Amino acid sequence: MTHPLRLGIAGLGTVGIGVVKIVKQQAALLAARTGREITISAISARTRDKDRGVSLSRFAWEDDPVALATRDDVDVFVELMGGSDGPAKAATEAAIAAGKDVVTANKAMLALHGQALAEAAEAAGRVIRYEAAVAGGIPVIKALTEGLAANRITRVMGVMNGTCNYILTRMEATGQGYNTLFEEAHKLGYLEADPNLDVGGIDAGHKLALLSSIAFGTRVDFDGIELEGIQRVSLDDIRHAADMGYKIKLLGVAQMTGRGLEQRMSPCLVPAGSPLGQLDGGTNMVVIEGDAVGQIVMRGPGAGEGPTASAVMADVCDIARGFRLPVFGQPASTLTAAQRAQSVLPAPYYLRMILRDKPGALAKVAAILGNAGVSIHRMRQYDHVDDKAPVLIVTHKTTRAALDEALTAISATDVVTDAPVALRIETV
Amino acid sequence: MTHPLRLGIAGLGTVGIGVVKIVKQQAALLAARTGREITISAISARTRDKDRGVSLSRFAWEDDPVALATRDDVDVFVELMGGSDGPAKAATEAAIAAGKDVVTANKAMLALHGQALAEAAEAAGRVIRYEAAVAGGIPVIKALTEGLAANRITRVMGVMNGTCNYILTRMEATGQGYNTLFEEAHKLGYLEADPNLDVGGIDAGHKLALLSSIAFGTRVDFDGIELEGIQRVSLDDIRHAADMGYKIKLLGVAQMTGRGLEQRMSPCLVPAGSPLGQLDGGTNMVVIEGDAVGQIVMRGPGAGEGPTASAVMADVCDIARGFRLPVFGQPASTLTAAQRAQSVLPAPYYLRMILRDKPGALAKVAAILGNAGVSIHRMRQYDHVDDKAPVLIVTHKTTRAALDEALTAISATDVVTDAPVALRIETV
């Protein structure tokens, strides 16, 4: 057995403490599996004096994460502070410069600075690992970089924000509206300090940007994601989608098209009977499609002490075993700039509009859709209430451009009360 | 870039040809991802002159797989012949002795000779990789050995024989009996040359034995599996299970109990709404439960050219990247002999029996169950037809021993027509 692999852990929140517990409690198992002892040399957090439910007295303390990251007795800097910039980034850069490997759960930092950090790490012969940054305990980065390495990836999809999925599935189950369930999620501690990271789709977008880069060999391009949160998903849409056999999910999709990389994170309809449609509550799911393998679906807990620490420690075990690979699965210098292609791929859409009770109202809508080249697959009109009738339409595949043209024209008529709602239906 | 990694491929059936295609068609992608060129030096198969739809003229030919495995220009011996003994084993042993790494899809060989092969490989400093041997394209060996390496695994379950799952789901969908759908599967080419490998649960049992060993650090123990095929699953059971909210699956379960390792491969009931219950057709699913991560579910194609070749090539990529780990995730010398524990864990059971129309018949059955300590959770009696009434019972958790005692006593009465059917209900 070679000398121990020594960790320096910055950030002692839920995940950091979970990592400490695994290192302490599973020492024999980890040594048997990796052939090396794994130890903790030093720790760092914002507050030192705090009962964290586990004894930390045997580890050196550093107030400054940069000092921790560069200690001589640290082989791997474990960054669990979070935040895209500030101390997390400074300490990560310092760790690389000091010749340390890095394991992090920080999706924001990598989604925004991944290319520069990868280039620095690879120039220094160091690795940055981040299994815990995407889909919690699901070993999806490993599946993509290694398990499916012989595939040309064609599409990656995922429900990767448990809080959003919790809110959406609770809306359907309880019939309560978005605002009520947002409050419920807040009380349960499910929301980030800035809730927009969750419900605005940003957190899930960070994860998608990382998966895209690995899948398609492109530089991480968070800004290239067409991003829409769940704030505007109404109870009506959830109910009506269910009537038509669909569920609404905050779904991330990355797909290489003939015109470039399409990345979307938005509320989509998926078939109620599909694995994505059946995903309830805080669980995450990632779907990977490759030319050889077909479709692989992975499901598991997307957050929490145990699952996230499990992923962090998987990365540590790989480093202990001497498994070293480039940050995004191929050298950062070979990653190409992603050509952005937004809504290039045609898709079916779900449309909901409120029709006024006028003669020929529906005919007018149908004619506008037809003129724009949008053909109707299924349509359902409900009873008029106060002279207003909800109309649901599922279109055949259409481009977003054609659809937008039709929706603008429909909104300009006097037969609908508001702008129609349009949600993409993702084929799974 | 270091020198190319040179493969010698024995077996040019569906999977072998799939591997050749990937090496040829994805050369650039593989080199970008692994940092090495991957080439094929030589090939071997039973018949040389046969149109396999891909040009093989640039590869050296060997009639004898042992000669192929030991060639100087071969770094990795890719064993895709199959068969637990004979040429596959001889060539694998020769490859190891000659200092080659081995990649194989051969579950039977490893399930029966895994310990000896692993010891030989590790003594020689060689690796044997077999992602393709379990659950086709799903990177489940990697998930277990690496992605979840920091977990004490508590249970592994899986539907790992697509043919059985195809037959069972078609029975439910079409209302046709086992024999009819066995013939259908046969005509479609879904069955092994010896169909008992599929429908007898042996093939799936081989896979379970490999997963058990990795999960629990025990020597592979195929003979320790409580094995039952799907031949006796009746249409009545499928229908009645559905009435009670369950599906019948050929389910493998490996679990470490206080009294040893319990390994079962048998038709079980699972909740219809669970991921396992919703798995239709030839798709495979593996469920892994660990103390830190909770439950991870992986789903994907369990067979076929592309998926299986994808898994073979993932192992080749790992070798190209220099990732080396023991055959069962920890050194073969540290694996412990599995203490066999059969049906130790209590479980709920589904019982079906045909009751004669006699006064007090049901009371008698209930009394016998009660006396054996088996309590009834749900019961449903159907109408009598010709003085016979089907009765379905879902029990609370009970030991198999208590249940068997009750079933023997029930069979000995004059109130049932045949021995009751008993199927375990697996909690998922």
Question: What does this entry look like structurally?
Answer:
Two copies of one chain form a homodimer. With 428 residues, chain A is of the alpha/beta class. Chain A folds into three domains: 5-133, Rossmann fold; 140-301, Dihydrodipicolinate Reductase, domain 2, CATH 3.30.360; 349-424, ACT domain (Alpha-Beta Plaits, 2-Layer Sandwich). Chain A is 36% helix and 23% strand. The first copy, chain A, is built from 14 helices and 16 strands. Chain A has helices spanning 14-25, 27-34, 65-69, 86-97, 107-123, 140-147, 162-174, 178-187, 196-199, 202-216, 235-243, 305-321, 361-371, 400-411, and strands at 5-10, 38-44, 60-61, 76-79, 101-104, 128-129, 153-159, 226-227, 246-257, 260-271, 283-290, 294-301, 349-356, 376-381, 388-395, 421-424. In chain A, the strands form three sheets. Chain A has a six-stranded parallel beta sheet with strand order 3-2-1-4-5-6, sandwiched between helices. In chain A, a hairpin with a 3-residue loop joins strand 11 (283-290) and strand 12 (294-301). The longest helix of chain A is centred in the N-terminal third of the chain and has 17 residues, at 107-123. The two termini of chain A are 47 Å apart.
CATH superfamily of the largest domain in chain A: Dihydrodipicolinate Reductase, domain 2
Low-confidence stretches of chain A: none
Just give the CATH class of the largest domain in chain A. Alpha Beta
Could you say which overall geometry of chain A the principal axes of the C-alpha atoms support? elongated
Percent of residues in helices of chain A comes to: 25-40%
Gyration radius of chain A, rounded: 24 Å
Number of domains of chain A: 3
Mean pLDDT of chain A: 95
Q: What is the string of helix and strand elements of chain A?
A: EHHEEHEHEHEHEHHHHEHEEEEHEHEEHE
Which fold does the CATH topology of the largest domain in chain A refer to? Answer: Dihydrodipicolinate Reductase, domain 2
Family (chains A, B): Belongs to the homoserine dehydrogenase family.
GO molecular function, one term (chains A, B): homoserine dehydrogenase activity
Pathway (chains A, B): Amino-acid biosynthesis; L-methionine biosynthesis via de novo pathway; L-homoserine from L-aspartate: step 3/3; Amino-acid biosynthesis; L-threonine biosynthesis; L-threonine from L-aspartate: step 3/5
InterPro entries (chains A, B): ACT-like_dom_sf (IPR045865), ACT_dom (IPR002912), Asp/hSer_DH_NAD-bd (IPR005106), HDH (IPR016204), HDH_cat (IPR001342), NAD(P)-bd_dom_sf (IPR036291)
